[in-house]
Design goal:
Distance between the termini: 11 Å
CATH topology: Spore Coat Polysaccharide Biosynthesis Protein SpsA, Chain A
Largest sheet: 10 strands, mixed
Number of domains: 1
Number of strands: 10
Low-confidence stretches: none
Helix content: 25-40%
Number of helices: 9
CATH superfamily: Spore Coat Polysaccharide Biosynthesis Protein SpsA, Chain A
Strand content: 15-25%
Radius of gyration: 18 Å
Order of helices and strands: EHEHEHEEHEEHEHHEHHE
Shape: globular
CATH class: Alpha Beta
Length: 273
C-alpha cells in the first residue's frame, strides 16, 4: 500500500529529501533512510521537475514500503522552497533532512531523535564522512558539540544541514527557510535558530557527504566561492547584524521569521511502480 501525505500527521520523524536530476545516487540515499533501525518515520522524496523520469525508476525497489511518499513540484523551485512547502504539512514532532546524493549511516536517526527527546537540544547534527562520486571515503569532519557557543565565537557553520534533525515546532516561530533563494539559507537558518534554540552535534560519524562536480555546493554557478553565494552571504550578514542590534525580545522575534516562498507551486503525488 502506497504511503499518503496524511502519514505526515502521524509519523514521529519526517525526513525530507528534495531531488533534482540526481537519479544515479537517489536509490542509495533512499535506501540509507528506509533501512535505518528507527522505524517510525516517513520519507518524503520530492522531485523538483527533473528533465526525465529516471528518478521514479530509482525508487521502484522501495515501492512497497508504506513509509515512502513521492511528490513532484509543478515547477522547478529549489530545495529550500520545497522544504518550506513540505514543512507546512508536517505535524509529527521531529523533522530530518537528507540530500539525494548523500548517505545516512546506520543508527543516525535513533541517536539524533534520542538526543532531541531527552530535552537537551532542539537541533541535532552529527559528524560526517566525505565520499567521492564513486562512494570512496576521502576524509571526515566532526562538528562542535555546542553550536550556540561556536556561534557566539564568530563561527557561522556549526552543523551540516542535511545531516540534522530538528523539532518541528521550531518552524512555528522561525517560519522555515528563506523562501526567496535557492542556496545558502541553511546557514541563515542556523543563525536565526541559535537565538532561541539549542544547536547540538553528536561527534559520531553518522552521515556521508558526497563531493562531486554536479552537486549544488561544487557546481560553478552555485558552489562555494560562486558569485551567488557571495551575494547571499553579504545579505545574510547584514540581516544578522540587524538582529544583534535588537534591544528587546519583542524587537528580535519578527527579525527571526524567514521570508516566505516567493514562487507559487504545487506538490503533486507521484505513483511509483
Amino acid at each position: 500500500m502506497r504511503a499518503t501525505p496524511e502519514r505526515l500527521n502521524t509519523a514521529t520523524l519526517t525526513v525530507i529529501l528534495p531531488h533534482y536530476d540526481c537519479a544515479d545516487y537517489l536509490s542509495l540515499a533512499v535506501e540509507s533512510v528506509l533501512r535505518q533501525d528507527f522505524r517510525d518515520l516517513v520519507l518524503v522524496v520530492v522531485d523538483d521537475c527533473s528533465p526525465d523520469d529516471a528518478w521514479t525508476r530509482a525508487l521502484r525497489p522501495f515501492a512497497a514500503d508504506t513509509r515512502l511518499v513521492a511528490l513532484r513540484t509543478s515547477r522547478n523551485v529549489g530545495h529550500l522552497r520545497i522544504k518550506n512547502a513540505v514543512l507546512e504539512r508536517v505535524r509529527g514532532p521531529y523533522v530530518g533532512f537528507q540530500d539525494a546524493d548523500d548517505i545516512s549511516l546506520p543508527g543516525r536517526f535513533t541517536h539524533q531523535v534520542r538526543m532531541l527527546a531527552s530535552g537537551r537540544a532542539d537541533l541535532v547534527g552529527c559528524g560526517y564522512q566525505y565520499i567521492d562520486d564513486a562512494g570512496r571515503i576521502t576524509g571526515h569532519r566532526r562538528m562542535p558539540r555546542h553550536g550556540n557557543l561556536w556561534m557566539r565565537l564568530g563561527r557561522s557553520t556549526v552543523a551540516h544541514h542535511p545531516a540534522t534533525v530538528i523539532r518541528r515546532d521550531m518552524m512555528d516561530r522561525l517560519r522555515g527557510f528563506d523562501g526567496t533563494v535557492r542556496l545558502g539559507a541553511d546557514t541563515d537558518f542556523h543563525l536565526r535558530a541559535s537565538r532561541l534554540y539549542r544547536l547540538r552535534n553528536t561527534r559520531r560519524l553518522l552521515y556521508q557527504y558526497r563531493i562531486w562536480p554536479k552537486s549544488l555546493t561544487q557546481a560553478p554557478d552555485t558552489g562555494f566561492g560562486s558569485e551567488a553565494r557571495r551575494a547571499y552571504t553579504e545579505a545574510m550578514t547584514a540581516r544578522e547584524l540587524t538582529r544583534r542590534q535588537a534591544r528587546s525580545r519583542e524587537e528580535l522575534l519578527p527579525l527571526l521569521a524567514a521570508p516566505p516562498n516567493d514562487i507559487e507551486f504545487e506538490l503533486r503525488p507521484v505513483r511509483i511502480g
